[in-house]
Design a protein that fits this description.
Oligomer: single chain
CATH superfamily of the largest domain: L-fucose Isomerase, Chain A, domain 2
CATH class of the largest domain: Alpha Beta
Shape: elongated
Number of strands: 17
Strand order of the largest sheet: 2-1-3-4-5
CATH topology of the largest domain: L-fucose Isomerase, Chain A, domain 2
Order of helices and strands: EHEHEEHEHEHEHHHHEHEEEHEHEHEEEE
Helix content: 25-40%
Structural class: alpha/beta
Distance between the termini: 38 Å
Number of helices: 13
Largest sheet: 5 strands, parallel
Radius of gyration: 26 Å
Length: 470
């Protein structure tokens, strides 16, 4: 059994700010400005807390939510809540605001790493927007980035009224994103192998991982992988279970063109299962391994393997473990994907990891190989596609390491049905020996059409990172 990742769970601290004025005011029924505001302020805070508690991360875990014990009206209140958040291990903060308070005096100092959002009410008598923009200006002046959430419509002031749908959407987005960043911090990228075929993304730069993502690089030579396989340093019972699952699940859909003998296929699968298990053990560790050091693992959130060409010229390629690890299921049933980057391209792996964490689905790795214009589509096929795709097509294809989920709709629910359909839609074919002399098994499937797709790619520019989104 692979070890769980070590690290604090994503923890969000949510607090409300309030106008601190408590002196008596004759024409305020509640007696003071603060007393008048208290029910509305705390009611909204409770709604935000309830929403945060309902949010699940990509692996099915929930955020840990800490509610500030007092509404913050000034520096002492802020210190009280900051202490509570520090003791709880908070990494994410939401300030819920309905009316005016003392601006930057109600903020926290000494924690630039806390991912912060300001969430405000839209109401004429309750100037949440004024405080939001005041605090944002202060945060900007101190070089502290904040995310601002404000609904487009004036809100119902009734205590029973729900949060505005736009506020719900944006708070949810913020918490999923911030929770994902929090989960990444302190984890590792397991680099198994070196630079592959001169690909810039597999030229790993530890400063990029540390500076931009709060992660460390753990490098493992591929001799370590080979040594584990040859010495039997893996869970043999798990290997037998995985092998039985593979041949039962994909019966009749393995090497249907009979390019290899049944004995060769059995030999391939046996080796590929061991590769898959050993890669996971390097990333996550495994209690069953007797060597205490090697049982620890790299505490890697994700990782990659450099296949071509130092490994694949003499051993099976990594298409099989990439397709299995990056999927949402395997022989043990449903699970969170273990993102496995092709050719040790950590920038590609980072994009896949982000996609997985933000959606809860597996990420599809593919090469963007061809652009087909409407003119060339018509010349090649005789079909006029201009009404369907007026700007043409981007053709995505690869040699086989796409996650198994993409043999069907990766968003299909229930998940058990998606797993069944993905297995039924997947064929396995031996590798082309011209490119992979060491052989391998690659997935072959057709992804359903008309799926909404977002393509992302991280790029290194010196010591900086850019992100391309299509």
């Amino acid at each position: 059994m692979n070890r769980p990742l070590v690290g604090n769970p994503p923890t969000v601290g949510i607090f409300a700010t309030i106008d601190p004025r408590t002196y008596p005011v004759p024409d305020i029924p509640e007696g003071s400005v603060k007393a008048q505001q208290m029910p509305v302020v705390m009611n909204r805070l409770d709604k935000v807390v309830k929403l945060a508690k309902s949010i699940k991360m990509y692996d099915g875990s929930k955020l840990k939510v800490v509610k500030g014990s007092v509404p913050v009206g000034g520096p002492r209140d802020a210190a009280i809540v900051q202490k509570e958040f520090e003791e709880a291990g908070v990494s994410i903060v939401i300030n819920s605001m309905c009316t005016w308070s003392m601006g930057w005096e109600t903020g926290f100092f000494g924690h630039p790493d806390w991912i912060t959002a300001y969430e405000a009410m839209n109401g004429t008598a309750w100037p949440g927007a004024v405080l939001l923009n005041s605090k944002r200006a202060s945060a900007t002046a101190h070089l502290n980035p904040v995310f601002c959430i404000y609904p487009p419509d004036v809100e119902d002031m009734e205590p029973s009224a729900p949060l505005h749908p736009e506020s719900i959407r944006r708070i949810t987005q913020f918490l999923k994103c911030a929770g994902s960043v929090s989960m990444m911090r302190g984890k590792s990228y397991a680099s198994i192998g070196h630079v592959s075929m001169g690909i810039a993304g597999s030229e790993l730069v530890s400063d990029i991982l540390a500076r931009w993502f709060g992660m460390k690089l753990v490098h493992v030579d591929q001799l370590e992988l080979l040594m584990r396989i040859q010495k039997g340093m893996f869970d043999n019972d798990e290997a037998k279970k995985a092998t039985e699952w593979f041949f039962n699940s994909f019966a009749g859909r393995i090497d249907i063109s009979k390019k290899r003998s049944p004995e060769k296929i059995k030999e391939l699968v046996d080796f590929l299962i061991k590769m898959t298990l050993c890669i996971r053990d390097i990333m996550r560790g495994n209690d069953i391994i007797e060597d205490e050091e090697r049982s620890q693992g790299a505490n890697a959130l994700f990782g990659g393997t450099a296949g071509q060409r130092y490994w694949t010229d003499w051993y099976p390629n990594f298409d099989f473990p990439e397709a299995i690890n990056s999927a949402t299921f395997d022989w043990n049933g449903l699970r969170a994907p273990i993102v496995h980057a092709t050719e040790n391209d950590y920038l590609n792996g980072m994009g896949m990891q982000w996609g997985t964490m933000l959606t809860g689905f597996s990420a599809l790795f593919a090469d963007l190989r061809t652009y087909w214009s409407p003119k060339k589509i018509k010349e090649a096929t005789g079909f006029d596609m201009s009404s369907i795709a007026p700007t043409g097509f981007l053709h995505l294809i690869n040699s086989g390491p796409a996650a198994l989920d993409w043999a069907t709709d990766p968003a299909m629910l229930p998940a058990e049905t998606r797993m069944k359909k993905a297995i039924e839609g997947t064929y396995w074919e031996p590798a082309g020996l011209g490119y992979f002399p060491g052989d391998g098994l690659s997935t072959h499937f057709v992804t359903p059409g008309n799926l909404p797709i977002t393509m992302i790619r991280f790029n290194r520019v010196g010591q900086d990172v850019t992100l391309t989104v299509i």
